[in-house]
Amino acid sequence: MSWQFHTTHAVRAAAFGLACLAGTGAALAQTYPTQPIRMVVPYAPGGTTDIIARQLAQRMSEKLGQPVVVENKSGANTVIGADAVAKAQPDGYTLLLTNDATFVFNPVVLPSVSYNVARDFAPVATIGYVPLVMAVAGSLPVDSVKDLAAYAKGRPHALSYGSFGSGSQPHLMGALFNKLAGTDLVHVPYKGSAPAVADVVGGQILMTFPALPTIQSFVSAKKLKVLAVSGDKRTRALPQVPTFAEAGYKDMDISAVYGVLAPAKVPRAVVDKLNATIREILDDKDFVEKHFAAQGMVPMKLSPAQFAQYIEAQTRQTRKLVELSGVRVE
């Protein structure tokens, strides 16, 4: 047999193999899912991530024809839930719905994380972003970020700010405020945003940086006031509140971006079907208006490839902010 024959035969065999894989993928996309899907949320019930997950899961169940069941697996700044999904079978029946604390912040600020985002996860789809806000007690005699900086400077070594965990976005935002405003607020990590918010309302700490949806009732009751909001434009929910950039603190412009990831090596056809399903839900204006816009959430529709690029870009940017802030997590 000639060399050319062997080469031609190999090329044809490879082409046939790729065709079979493509056919298998197409068939899988048509039949998936055939059983319930578990959607892991690495936070306790009741928070923004949990609320978003349950709203999305209900609509996904309707469109996919199988139950999408939310399972809360909180702890270690989302590491416990994320690690469980990273180790799950890559069959499309275990998903992770979380925010960028998991896929951007943890790998940058935590000294040792059990998972590697690029190695252990397949980005499926972004859902949207929720502005994080600078919230202080409604009775505090300040009306702007500038006022707050002056107030804190006048009380050195006496005030603190809360976050929902060491290495979280609010931890970084508070550290950036200290650096940029020249204050010396002490960081107090909490097990979630709710207890931090409660201590701001009660006067135990000066401020925190919660997601807007979780504090709207406190703002309406004037128990909290919002001094600045993240995002490139003001939020519909609080149009009178300036952005961090408008307030003169553009480096604090950090939002909570939410997305769905799957274990690495999940079939591409499954990823594409899930992405298409989620994008279709986000294209439903009534759903977005009822469940997302009213809470200040802005839809964010990226392809799996774009999501992966976003993670890489945000990780680079976060490293720069961490270096600027001097944040250290032991």
Task: Offer a concise description of the structure.
Belongs to the UPF0065 (bug) family. This protein has 330 residues and is of the alpha/beta class. It has helices spanning 3-31, 48-64, 79-86, 100-109, 117-120, 145-153, 169-181, 193-201, 216-220, 268-282, 285-292, 304-325; strands at 37-41, 68-72, 94-99, 121-130, 133-137, 160-163, 186-189, 207-208, 224-229, 256-263, 298-299.
Topology:
Elements: H1 3-31, E1 37-41, H2 48-64, E2 68-72, H3 79-86, E3 94-99, H4 100-109, H5 117-120, E4 121-130, E5 133-137, H6 145-153, E6 160-163, H7 169-181, E7 186-189, H8 193-201, E8 207-208, H9 216-220, E9 224-229, E10 256-263, H10 268-282, H11 285-292, E11 298-299, H12 304-325
Parallel strand pairs: 1-2, 1-3, 6-7, 6-8
Antiparallel strand pairs: 3-10, 4-10, 4-11, 5-8, 5-9
Account of the protein in words:
Residues 1-29 form the signal peptide. Pfam families: TctC (PF03401). Belongs to the UPF0065 (bug) family. The protein has helices spanning 3-31, 48-64, 79-86, 100-109, 117-120, 145-153, 169-181, 193-201, 216-220, 268-282, 285-292, 304-325, and strands at residues 37-41, 68-72, 94-99, 121-130, 133-137, 160-163, 186-189, 207-208, 224-229, 256-263, 298-299. The chain is an alpha/beta fold and 330 residues long. It has 2 domains: 32-130 and 257-325, 3-Layer(aba) Sandwich (D-Maltodextrin-Binding Protein, domain 2); 133-252, D-Maltodextrin-Binding Protein, domain 2. Helix 4 crosses helix 12. The relative contact order is 0.17.
Order of helices and strands: HEHEHEHHEEHEHEHEHEEHHEH
Question: What is the CATH superfamily label of the largest domain?
Answer: Bordetella uptake gene, domain 1
Low confidence ranges: 1-5
Shape: globular
Q: Helical proportion?
A: 40-55%
| Distance between the ends | 65 Å
The strand order across the widest sheet is 2-1-3-10-4-11
| Strand-pairing-aware structural class | alpha/beta
Percent of sequence in beta strands: 15-25%
How many beta strands in the DSSP annotation? 11
Number of domains: 2
- Gyration radius (Cα, Å) is 22 Å
What is the class of the largest domain in the CATH system?
Answer: Alpha Beta
Subunit organisation of the chains: single chain
Report the total helices: 12
Q: What is the typical, i.e. mean, pLDDT?
A: 90
InterPro entries: BUG, Bug_dom1
Keywords: Signal
Family: Belongs to the UPF0065 (bug) family.
Pfam families: TctC
